[in-house]
Amino acid sequence: DKTIRLWDSRGLQVAHVFPAKQHIQTYCEVSEDGHKCVSCSNGFGGEGCEATLWDLRQTRNRICEYKGHFQTVASCVFLPRALASMPIIATSSHDCKVKI
């Protein structure tokens, strides 16, 4: 249904549903500190081929979108904080590229 849902594991109830994106969401990951979530979506020809960064503390807020792939973004991850002084996200796509 093109949404990402946060679940309360205590009662197995949906705690929040992020606004639906235009394209199907293919993967998501939560940052180590639990404050952010990154999701990625399918697409083709550069349309819908993005990763979206969400603020989990203010769950209605999309922080930004990372565009640049030309096919479905299959995976997105937060890289370990030890690699840089600031948070870094990596994405991989069906266009055979990894972007950081």
TrEMBL record:
Q: Which domain of life is it from?
A: Eukaryota
What Gene3D superfamilies would the database entry show? YVTN repeat-like/Quinoprotein amine dehydrogenase (2.130.10.10)
Instruction: Cite the InterPro entries for this sequence.
Output: WD40/YVTN_repeat-like_dom_sf, WD40_repeat_dom_sf, WDR31
Name it. Answer: WD repeat domain 31
Upper lineage ranks?
Eukaryota, Metazoa, Chordata, Craniata, Vertebrata
